Amino acid sequence: MAVTLQQILAQLKKKEFAPIYFLHGSEPFFIDTISDYIEENALSESERSFNQIVLYGKDTGHLTVIDNARRYPMMSKYQVVIVKEAQQMEDLKELEQYLEKPLNSTILVLCHKHKKFNMNTKFGKLLAKQGVVFESNKLYDNQVPEWIKEQLKLQGHRIANDAADLMAEYLGTDLSVVMHELSKLTLHVEKGTEITTTHVEQFTGISREYNIFELQKALSTRDSAKTGRIIQNFLANPKRNPIIMVIGSLGIFFTKVYQLHFLINASDSEVQSALDMRSAWALREYRQAMRNYPLHKTESIIGMLKEYDLKAKGVEFNTVGKEEGELLKDMIYQILH
Question: Which domains does the chain have, with CATH numbers?
Fold first, then answer.
């Protein structure tokens, strides 16, 4: 049966275990959340010594998994077998023979990360029949602010809308990165105090004025003065804004600008859907960039960003040892001019 994350965690907290948990999908964070909870809470500390084993798909075959799953627990009601990175198992489907008759005393957890498994196969149908199947999907950009609010609420904290938006804009959809930054906030801000953009800037290093999104806005309007101030801040704080991250973000930005050139006659809602944009406000920013960067210029910028990505990595160009700051300044100058 397929269930939600909240339903699974509620069952686990009540010690209601299924014989098989198949966790698959593109978002590893939710898979880790379930797997880690089972690993840390299904058995007591003394029970884990004899009744819990963690295997890794790359180094594990189906016979090893089955042999461990068919053991009976020692001085415990359950034993736990967790297979991490199960997507790397070459013979994963050979577990069918165990799925046909799993032991109720074994909690078998299969973590199939980074991609959805085809549940219409015989193996998939057996999983759905015999255990709990959870599909872990990535959040859309516009879902992250609400997710941030929910996570903080669970920990007894609350956050202002603009602060949640700032974190979502800056950190993107990598939930493990977002959680890392949220942990900094909960460590420094007392419960009951609303987390503001000031707290976010103070305790995470995220800046309202000097971040990749403000750089994109400045470039979209060809505001050389503001762009220069942001780049100077980046150069002063290279660990916060490494050039590889800047190139990657600008690559995504200008790729959308490029695509927008071919969607001139589409409605706003159609464009937002096609380009996965969070809001009409974001679309206006991209339309501004499209006006300032004609199609041939946008194509040139995308090619140039690929070149600087290689330069930053010291590949194919004689730039080994060249300061990242020099490369960053040169790159931004070429975009503007």
Answer: 5-136 (3.40.50.300), 141-204 (1.10.8.60), 212-336 (1.20.272.10)
